[in-house]
Specification:
The complex is a heterodimer of chains A (about 375) and B (about 525). By secondary structure, chain A is mainly α. Helix content of chain A is about 75%, strand content about 0%. Chain A has 15 helices and no strands. In chain A, helix 3 packs across helix 13, helix 3 crosses helix 14 and helix 5 runs antiparallel to helix 11. Chain B has about 525 residues and is an alpha/beta fold. In chain B, helix 15 packs parallel to helix 16. Classes of the chains: A mainly alpha (about 375), B alpha/beta (about 525).
């Protein structure tokens, strides 16, 4: 090589590239979404600035709105982490929708089964374990079918969504519901305190301590992926299964683990609604959050921190849609979500190529 | 043509005597100069060898010529016209055809379909397969590049796939052919065949640029040689006026021992024991139920190198994968140090002392998106973990040590393996496999696509391992390598060992006959 003692410079170059890879696509996506949003708002005859101000005031601008963003971001972080955990192993888990529902259902059953007055310190772990186990079971089915019979996990997880959701719908409708509703009775134990209980300013918002749980889970996922031998093997399988096999890693076992754990994480997401918000399981509570987790994982580049940021972003859009409804239809936010997802999908390799070109010129 | 064609007329007269003229080429990737003051002048109708170590900038220079990259500075002329910064389409239209080191064929399509891809002949809007096949057939006959147009590319041997690659560029009317390491994967008869074809093309008036590491080839075939080092051009020599030693010196900038071709004396007679690698009646079935490895038995003793020669696709790959635990065996036994490992996992084989340099470092040997440090613990990561948590400091320390002792460049443990040149990637694999505790080493194409300096280095390591009492099974497409390193040589032909002989009795001629199957012998 032409440069003699380049260690330090290479190190910074490598880090810069990594930071770019993580941060640039979401940034560009945001920019593109903003421009599209401007055009849409203008087409409604409104001022983009006014609408965006409204959006920010309705979400980050007051405690209630911010609390709602926190609440929505919590579920999205769970499902986003679940999808990204699978993607790190090269697997696409589209079953977040039903895993989340199954987890919520199991948490509610546990909360119902425990005697009233069970201390939270006991009830919470039991409910979380039940939620995770239920999600894990749903996640393990495609895992087993894939490793045993080579069935593609995308197909199986999609199909399983229908099966599981229909099954839960039947149980609720036929056995467990409170008359005139489609939800279970209220749980007797395991209810999580809301933020409003501690900080009255959050009054009315659904934000609750599940958000602490999700931060712990995100930290654990990061640690597992990047600091343990299991994570080393999992990412190796995701990047190059042939090389992983050569290195003595059992690819099938990693797949089994990755999809099951992915299901566990999505399942645990069920506590946010059931333990933290409504205190009962309601049919259809998970609707959309599982699928949106895919977008969160993509925008977050499968990095736990990135997933948290992306979850906040999508939660803001979703809550913001309600805030600006008076000016423009809230469906505009769905359009923007779609734009963001598309922009991220497109921008990843493109942006980097452009940037590299400019850097080379400046060095030459 | 694009880019500066308005200036072309004035330049045309001055430089029209060259088919390719590249001058003062600069190309940077971040802080790394891939090309720095690189130049190339190729006369029409000659075979021009472009040589240099891995990472010397040959491939970058050719990518610039082929329009895959734009230079940061410098000037490119083809047939006297300034074409600096042109596109791949321009380059193809101007008759430049690049045959890449890694094949760019669609494996599920037939040979003919691959060739006509992008310019398919149609009849009533449907692919006219018969016409495609017949035009391929005639080009095949005309050039001597024999290959059946109706076969699927996935079923071809590497040598055949290469022929298809060359046919593909000729089919698109290439007059200037660039071949990147064309012989890296070929057996000697296939190489000879390729030489005949290239000479024929040159005599027809085509211009050929040959990128290669192999000095014997350079001297054998080329008319003129350009030597590159560290991104720049250091010499331009007439082949008739130079020697391999002189070229090697120009390439690495110092004297090198050309070990290939000279026998390294085998050490003292080995003690016979039940240690080492023993294979009994091993049979491996291929995807179509055929016996790709057919009842092979052999022993590799500690302190011995058994070399396997043979034309690619005679079962060597499957044999090594079977031994490494990456492929199911139908029958037979694999025994390492008296332990039967036939049905044990890859991991268990590692633990029993098996080390493996795989033939394909991009697919098997490395995780390209992992850092050098992380690649250096693939398969040995358990040793760097306590309670399943990897000790990052130990991983980086290990990498620092390996980078120093195996001279991996650039010396940055956090760099992704993908960013390294082929030779340095191979050094990472070799560093990892040779520094773990092992008693048996499977070395499959250990120097494929690696430069002279690195080849010397790798050979030295293999000989050191032998001296340290390791049992080494070497598979190589390079006959000279097999002959130079092995104590005994086996030839694999259609899934069987057609002969096993002491290396002292073997020569390229003798082995060549066994390799193409005209001679069959007893196993010694």
């Amino acid at each position: 090589m032409a440069v003699e003692k380049p260690t330090a410079r290479f190190a910074t170059a490598a880090w810069r590239e990594r930071a770019e890879e993580a941060l640039l696509p979401p940034f560009v996506a945001l920019l593109v979404a903003l421009i599209c949003g401007d055009l849409l708002i203008l087409s409604y005859g409104q001022s983009p600035l006014a609408v965006y101000r409204m959006l920010l005031e309705g979400t980050w601008g007051n405690a209630y709105g911010f609390g709602q963003v926190l609440y929505k971001a919590t579920t999205l972080t769970f499902t986003g982490l679940a999808v990204s955990f699978g993607l790190r192993a090269g697997l696409f888990n589209i079953g977040g929708e039903s895993q989340l529902a199954a987890g919520g259902f199991a948490a509610a059953l546990t909360g119902l089964a425990l005697p009233a007055g069970t201390p939270l310190i006991l009830a919470l772990p039991l409910c979380i374990v039940a939620a995770g186990a239920a999600g894990g079971v749903v996640g393990a089915v495609p895992a087993v079918l894939k490793t045993r019979f080579g069935a593609h996990e995308v197909i199986v997880t999609i199909m399983l969504n229908f099966v599981v959701l229909a099954f839960l719908n039947w149980i609720i409708a036929a056995k467990l519901h409170v008359p005139e509703t489609l939800h279970t009775p209220e749980i007797r134990a395991g209810a999580l305190p809301r933020l409003a209980d501690m900080f009255p300013t959050f009054h009315g918002s659904a934000a609750n301590l599940a958000l602490i749980v999700v931060l712990v889970v995100a930290g654990a996922v990061w640690f597992y992926l990047f600091r343990t031998s299991g994570g080393y093997a999992l990412r190796a399988v995701g990047l190059q299964p042939d090389a992983a096999e050569y290195g003595g890693i059992s690819v099938g076992r990693v797949w089994l683990k990755a999809l099951t754990v992915s299901g566990v994480i999505a399942g645990m997401g069920g506590i946010n609604y059931v333990l933290g918000y409504k205190h009962y399981y309601e049919d259809g509570f998970a609707s959309g959050a599982g699928f949106l987790g895919i977008a969160v994982a993509l925008v977050g580049r499968n990095n736990p921190l990135g997933v948290i940021i992306a979850a906040f972003f999508f939660a803001t859009l979703s809550q913001g849609g309600l805030a600006i409804h008076a000016f423009v239809p809230k469906q505009m936010m769905d359009v923007l979500q779609g734009v963001v997802i598309l922009a991220v999908a497109v921008s990843v390799p493109e942006v980097r190529r452009v940037l590299r070109g400019s850097r080379r010129r400046s060095n030459a | 043509m694009t880019g500066g064609s308005s200036q072309a007329p004035t330049q045309a007269r001055a430089t029209s005597s060259f088919a390719i003229r590249m001058e003062g080429i600069e190309k940077y990737f971040g802080p790394i100069a891939a090309n720095h003051d690189a130049s190339l002048e190729v006369a029409p109708g000659e075979i021009h060898a472009l040589v240099g170590e891995n990472g010397a900038g040959k491939s970058t220079l050719m990518r610039i010529l082929g329009g895959l990259m734009k230079p940061d500075a410098g000037r490119v002329e083809v047939d006297g016209k300034d074409v600096t910064g042109w596109s791949t389409n321009d380059a193809i239209a101007a008759g430049i055809g690049v045959v890449h080191q890694h094949f760019m064929l669609v494996p599920t399509l037939t040979v003919a379909e691959n060739l006509v891809l992008g310019s398919e002949p149609t009849k009533n809007g449907v692919l006219d397969y018969a016409q495609a096949a017949s035009s391929v057939q005639s080009l095949s006959a005309e050039t001597g590049l024999k290959v059946d147009p109706t076969r699927k590319v996935a079923d071809l041997s590497v040598g055949e796939a290469q022929r298809v690659e060359i046919l593909k560029v000729l089919f698109r009317g290439a007059k200037i052919l660039v071949l990147d390491e064309p012989t890296a994967v070929l057996s000697p008869p296939e190489v000879r065949e390729l030489w005949t074809v290239l000479r024929r093309l040159r005599d027809k008036g085509d211009t050929i640029v040959l990128i290669t590491h192999r000095l014997d080839e350079v001297v054998d075939l080329s008319d003129t040689i350009t030597v590159m080092r560290a991104g720049g051009t250091v010499a331009r020599i007439k082949t008739s006026e130079t020697t391999p030693a002189e070229i090697a010196r120009a390439m690495v900038g110092r004297e090198v021992a050309l070990s290939a071709g000279t026998r390294v004396a085998s050490s003292a007679p080995q003690p016979r024991s039940n240690r080492g690698l023993e294979v009994r009646d091993l049979t491996i079935k291929g995807s179509r139920g055929n016996r790709v490895v057919d009842g092979v038995s052999f022993v590799v003793h500690p302190g011995e190198i058994l070399g396997i020669a043979g034309v690619e696709g005679n079962g060597q790959t499957e044999l090594i994968e079977g031994l490494a635990g990456l492929r199911d065996v139908s029958s037979g036994q694999i025994i390492i140090d008296a332990v039967d490992l036939t049905s044990r996992s890859v991991d268990a084989r590692h633990d029993e002392g098996l080390s493996h340099i795989p033939e394909d470092r991009h697919r098997r040997g490395l995780i390209l998106e992992y850092s050098i440090a992380d690649n250096l613990i693939l398969g040995v990561d358990k040793k760097f973990a306590r309670n399943y948590v990897i000790d990052q400091r130990a991983v980086l320390d290990n990498a620092g040590g390996q980078i120093a002792s195996f001279d991996i460049r650039p010396p940055d443990a956090t760099l992704n393996a993908r960013a390294l040149s082929g030779g340095n990637q191979q050094k990472v694999v070799i560093a990892r496999e040779m520094s773990r505790a092992f008693s048996v080493l499977l070395a499959s194409q250990p120097t494929r696509g690696v430069d002279v300096g690195a080849i010397e280095f790798i050979h030295q390591r293999l000989l050191e391992a032998r001296a340290a009492g390791k049992a080494i099974l070497l598979v190589s497409a390079e006959l000279s390598e097999v002959l130079a390193l092995s104590d005994r040589v086996a030839v694999m032909y259609r899934g069987k060992f057609s002969v096993v002989m002491p290396a002292s009795e073997a020569s390229e001629e003798v082995l060549g006959e066994y390799m193409i199957g005209t001679k069959k012998g007893a196993t010694a």
